[in-house]
Amino acid sequence: MKRGSFAVLSNEDIAFFKKLLPGRVITDESELLPYNTDWLKTVRGASKVVLRPKTTQEVSDIVKYCYDHNLAVCPQGGNTGLVGGSVPVFDEVVITTQLMNQIISLDQVSGILVCQSGCILEALDHYLSNYELTMPLDLGAKGSCQIGGNVSTNAGGIRLLRYGSLHGNVLGLEVVLPNGEIVDCLTTLRKDNTGYDLKQLFIGAEGTLGIITAVSILCPPQPKSVSVALLGCETFDSILQVFKSSKLYLGEILSAFEFMDSQSMILVKENLKLNSPLVDYPFYALVECSGSNAHHDEEKLMSLLHAVLDKGEALDGCIVTDSAKIKNIWSLRERCAEALMYDGYCYKYDVSLPLSAFYQLVLDMRDRLGANATRVVAYGHVGDGNLHLNITSRQYSKTTFDLIEPFVFEWVAKYRGSISAEHGLGLKKREYIHHSKTPSAVALMAAVKKTIDPKGIMNPYKVLPESILR
């Protein structure tokens, strides 16, 4: 990969930024390291400066200066991405939104929250709980990821089954374009049928079209009751039958349906010393229901448990309603990503597949890799067809990597899946976009990018192949 024809940061540039953001410009090499390195510690850039604005106007002034002086920019939120989309590739100017963490307004009747893009997801959820509301998304990285980054990557997570994607829940955005212009589409209206829905351009664009500075989002009522069932199953087909039964028996209170294979459960037991209330089974289903009546909801979940056991869809199961026990059950699933890091190096793949082909990818990958991998584990959101395939080895191995890529993307394409379900393309997957999108669709994306960012300064080297942007 070659560096683009962007200007090199000068002392004059640094002086301008320090005048604009007194005390909020980072140039010390040791302090720059976390901003230059991704969460997985697999990608590292060489930015010489990190800028920490507090307001949209400051972001606008920074970006306009960079546009006028042909300096490439890397927007960064919580830096919890897994595809190298939030760190510089070369020496781009990093603009972090971590100080843009103010809540602007909350309409308690409609449940519409307006906030700056640097607000931490978990902090927003805690704030909303005071008003009996909740965020429509929940992620494992909620303690550090930011809502602007969530929107920029169209993050999914475990609540998508219940509340849908951010494309539906985000009502408005405020965005700074690559030339520094502020586009205010920060509406709080649920219905606005006046022309193009411009906010959709920036949801999932991974910061390549502009920097999101504020978000208006629809927040549902906080459930009055939450119950969770953990079920042990013999086959993945049984998991699918349990999912079908869950929709039938739980209806509107079904809020999450997750699965783990036996290797995932072994992983969290061995590496994190977690305990499961069930004995060992080939597969596990985690079913969550949330509603307004604890007795009614628990009764429906109990009916589901009896039904799936009677029909042989599940071999064993338990139901928990205590919040501490619910947290323990969820930790078995949510901490899988953390547990993988103890194995050494992890090759992570986040794909969408038809449920009929969902687990076959895991079996084929195990056969293909053999002794070249320590583990091949799978877990994910069966409720929306999102598989998290993870392969570990004691250290990075080129042999193992070459056995995985591009095979995994070709396999997904054969079944008309998506090579990225919720983490985006970033740097790592951009060259494989054609496995999920047609040439005409990719060409249209490139046309949009060139129109909005003619100099290509906004998060370069990400999402779209370099060849199509020339």
Quickly describe the structure.
With 470 residues, this protein is an alpha+beta fold. It has helices at 11-20, 29-36, 56-68, 121-129, 147-152, 160-163, 166-169, 199-202, 236-250, 262-272, 294-310, 323-334, 336-340, 360-369, 398-404, 407-414, 439-452, 466-469; strands at 25-26, 50-51, 73-76, 93-96, 103-107, 112-116, 170-176, 182-185, 211-218, 225-233, 254-261, 283-291, 316-320, 345-352, 375-381, 386-393. It is globular and about 70 Å long.
Q: Approximately how much helix is present in the residues?
A: 25-40%
Record field, number of beta strands: 16
Q: Give the strand order, joined by hyphens, for the main sheet.
A: 13-10-12-11-15-16-14
Shape: globular
* Average pLDDT rating: 95
Structural class, from secondary structure content? alpha+beta
**SS summary, helix count:** 18
What is the radius of gyration computed over CA atoms, rounded to a whole number of angstroms? 23 Å
- Approximate strand percentage: 15-25%
End-to-end separation in angstroms reads 14 Å
Taking pLDDT < 50 over at least 5 consecutive residues as the criterion, the unreliable ranges are none
Largest sheet: 7 strands, antiparallel
